[in-house]
Design a protein that fits this description.
Helix content: 25-40%
Shape: elongated
Number of helices: 11
Strand order of the largest sheet: 5-6-7-8-11-12-13-14-15
Number of domains: 2
CATH architecture of the largest domain: Alpha-Beta Barrel
Bound molecules: S-adenosyl-L-homocysteine, iron/sulfur cluster
CATH topology of the largest domain: TIM Barrel
Radius of gyration: 23 Å
Length: about 425
């Protein structure tokens, strides 16, 4: 049964009511993925264990879930044999369903995933020589309508839950075969080499998949706290980057409560152009955004803020724009690096990518201004896995189309 209590998603563009996140399973069992240790403890207590037992079992189960990646209580060998069916009757260990997995010729992998209530979303893994980056989605669709972004043409279907967000990381580890091998209950018989926690294919996480993570703040925070928990996935906050289109009021909280690296989708240096291509700019303007960046907790020369800048032909790519970019970043004394993203095309997009020469020139000007501005190599374009190409079946319908469908449905019902 779905809880249909409505809540509104903040955002100036098209705030829509969506169903609340918690969808109890039909069989009444509770999915443990996405819950912090203290909630697992409380659930175990609620199911009848005494305080001490609940705490001990929660600690053990948490380790199996997030450190070892098991999906079956039977595999939890340090938990009494009789206890395992007791757990399985009450709880499950979920993963998002995989609808389709694709491989790009450049090694990039994209997964089309599905929530238990049937909504599709995507995650992408980008292997490099020295690192492997998982690009994680925070919402199904997006409330915002950045004009160059394919996801922006979808409506927001709903926020992903903490379980669905951390579930992407778990699934990637499953697919990459990266859970530590070996038995935990019997380490005596095992050489150190057999019990290794370092697969090291997945080293970095970027919240740059579908959706605006700061419009799903609580769930993203709870999920990333699980990803960073030293008893579990234990990924350092320095290896996690959250990208925002500029939800100014949530930025300070992001630094304080999550503490990960910040990337900001700047994309333009004048009000006129940013209003057009990143419409949230009409609500939180450039000055406010850059000030929030200057105030971002934890930013320093050692931990710079990344400014993403999509290269759109004849729109935002002139020499003058490049010089203004340098001026602005300096005026706000920002510890900044710029990431130039060649525009990735999608069917129906109104923009074209700047020429390679233009991108090079733009990059040179920013470099000459003393700010690093590498060009991001597009990855996985052949499977539509590159930045801004993610989109699933839930269309953003026009008002006219919705009216037409409603009229048809009413006619059929009558
Ligand atoms: N919603 C967040 C994070 C997801 S998008 C945000 O907007 O920051 C990740 C990055 O890809 C953002 O910088 C986004 O602006 C950029 N992007 C979107 N569409 C793109 C496209 N078609 N080509 C290149 N980059 C794109
Ligand atoms: Fe949403 Fe980011 Fe795409 Fe803008 S760029 S529509 S905020 S996903």
């Amino acid at each position: 049964m779905t809880d249909t209590t409505l809540m509104s998603i903040p955002g100036q563009v098209d705030p829509v009511p969506v169903a609340r996140d918690i969808t109890p399973r039909e069989d009444g069992r509770v999915d443990l993925i996405g819950l912090p240790k203290k909630d697992i403890t409380a659930l175990f207590e609620g199911a009848g264990l005494d305080k001490r037992q609940a705490k001990l079992r929660a600690k053990q189960v948490f380790h199996w879930l997030y450190h070892r990646g098991v999906t079956d209580f039977e595999a939890m060998t340090d938990i009494a044999k009789t206890m395992r069916p007791w757990l399985a009757e009450r709880f499950v260990i979920g993963r998002p369903d995989v609808v389709e997995a694709q491989h790009s010729t450049d090694g990039t992998r994209k997964w089309l995933l599905k929530t238990s209530d049937g909504h599709e979303f995507e995650m992408v893994f980008i292997p490099d020589a020295d690192r492997g980056t998982l690009c994680v989605s925070s919402q199904v669709g997006c409330t915002l309508n950045c004009r160059f972004c394919h996801t922006g043409t979808m409506r927001l279907v709903r926020n992903l839950t903490p379980g669905e967000i951390v579930g992407q990381v778990m699934l990637a580890r499953d697919s990459l075969g990266e859970w530590p091998k070996g038995r935990m209950d019997d380490l005596g018989d095992e050489s150190e080499a057999e019990y290794t926690a370092d697969g090291r294919l997945l080293t970095n996480i970027v919240m740059m998949g579908m959706g605006e993570p700061l419009y799903n703040f609580d769930n993203v925070r709870d999920a990333l706290q699980l990803v960073m928990d030293g008893d579990g996935l234990a990924l350092s906050k320095r290896r996690i980057t959250l990208s925002t289109s500029g939800v100014v009021p949530a930025m300070a909280r992001c630094g304080e409560e999550i503490g990960v690296n910040l990337a900001v989708s700047l994309h333009a240096v004048t009000k006129e152009i940013r209003d057009e291509i990143v419409p949230i700019n009409k609500k939180y303007g450039l000055e406010e955004l850059l000030q929030a960046c200057a105030d971002y907790p934890g930013a320093s020369n050692a931990r710079r803020i990344t400014f993403e800048y999509v290269m759109l032909k004849d729109k935002n790519d002139s020499d003058e724009h490049a010089r203004e970019l340098v001026r602005l970043l300096k005026a706000y004394k920002l510890p900044a690096k710029v990431n130039l993203i060649p525009f990735n095309p999608w069917p129906g997009a109104v923009y074209e990518c700047s020429t390679p020469e233009r991108i090079k020139r733009f990059s040179d000007i920013v470099f000459e201004g003393g700010i690093s501005a590498p060009v991001r190599t597009p990855r996985g374009r052949d499977i539509d896995a590159a930045c801004g190409q993610l989109k699933t079946a839930a269309e953003k319908k026009s008002r006219a189309q919705r009216d037409r469908e409603e009229a048809e449905a009413a006619a059929q019902a009558g």
